[in-house]
Specification:
Layout lengths: L6 E6 L8 H13 L4 E4 L6 E2 L3 H5 L8 E6 L4 H12 L5 H6 L1
Antiparallel strand pairs: 1-4, 2-3, 2-4
């Protein structure tokens, strides 16, 4: 991701379960559907490919924690914004129904 067109934004994880299990699966599916690669990172670590469930789970991100979302290339601004909006929502369908 050394491209000059790299866009990075921060998002606060909105799912009560964090980026684990079902919420992670939703985010990974969305990342896979994007035309460019999307990366997640914590301030203290290296970026992981957002389209890999195992790599996303390896971040151990809890609700309320901030992650960096990055992408490079044409459409990166829109893709990163869309992923931020998604990550900031409650993504566990069981919890959404109870709200």
């Amino acid at each position: 991701m050394s491209d000059s067109l790299t866009v990075t934004k921060q998002a606060v994880v909105g799912s009560k379960a964090g980026l684990h299990a079902r919420p992670a699966a939703v985010v990974v599916a969305a990342a896979k559907a994007k035309p460019i690669k999307v990366y997640f990172s914590r301030d203290s670590g290296k970026a992981v490919l957002a389209s890999s469930i195992l790599r996303v789970l390896s971040l151990h991100v809890a609700c309320g924690e901030t992650i960096n979302i990055s992408a490079s290339g044409e459409g990166a601004e829109e893709v990163v914004s869309q992923m931020c909006e998604l990550v900031e929502q409650e993504l566990d369908p069981d919890l959404v129904e109870q709200a």
